[in-house]
């Protein structure tokens, strides 16, 4: 469990750095799409090289074979998330953007977990209080910029 938490903490820090660097790219480019293409290209190339080094060309063939129309949605959603992050950093700053993203992710996560379990009653009082506090904090952090 501690390794998972540490990985999530590092991912959170990485996201702040990624968005800050991508904003910098957009300052010298004609469109935010340049930053998105660079980001996606580097990620795709890195992941393909890792997959090929671990599983050979058979891994690449398996990945291509796993593509279904609905499987394209995560890539679209991820690209939208990165785009929204860049836009937020540019217009609101890092802290307000992160506050709104985290609060909205928590609310969506609670709704998702409740939907999967089929019961809203599976949400505990502490989860609801925590969500309320996090949303309140997001409003306080982002409120002056919204």
Task: Please give a structural write-up.
The model has no long low-confidence stretch (mean pLDDT 91). The radius of gyration is 18 Å and the shape is globular. The protein is built from 5 helices and no strands. It has helices spanning 2-27, 32-65, 73-91, 94-117, 125-142. With 146 residues, it is mostly helical. The chain is 83% helix and 0% strand. 11% of the residues are buried.
Compact summary:
The protein is mostly helical and 146 residues long. The chain has five helices and no strands.
Supply the number of helical segments: 5
What's the average pLDDT? Answer: 91
**Overall 3D shape:** globular
- Portion of residues in beta strands equals under 5%
The major beta sheet can be summarized as: none
Give the secondary structure arrangement, pairings included.
Blueprint: H1 2-27, H2 32-65, H3 73-91, H4 94-117, H5 125-142
Helix pairs in contact: 1-2, 1-3, 2-3, 3-4, 4-5
Supply database-style keywords.
single chain; 146 residues; mainly alpha; 0% strand
């Amino acid at each position: 469990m501690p390794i998972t938490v540490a990985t999530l903490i590092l991912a959170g820090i990485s996201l702040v750095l990624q968005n800050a660097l991508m904003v910098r790219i957009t300052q010298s480019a004609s469109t935010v799409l340049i930053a998105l293409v660079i980001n996606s290209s580097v990620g795709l190339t890195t992941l393909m090289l890792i997959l090929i080094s671990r599983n050979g060309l058979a891994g690449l063939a398996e990945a291509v074979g796993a593509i279904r129309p609905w499987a394209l949605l995560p890539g679209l959603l991820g690209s939208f998330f990165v785009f929204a992050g860049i836009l937020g950093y540019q217009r609101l700053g890092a802290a307000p953007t992160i506050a709104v993203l985290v609060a909205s992710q928590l609310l969506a996560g609670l709704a998702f977990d409740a939907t999967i379990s089929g019961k809203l009653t599976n949400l505990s009082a502490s989860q609801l209080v925590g969500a309320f506090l996090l949303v309140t904090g997001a409003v306080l952090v982002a409120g002056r910029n919204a």
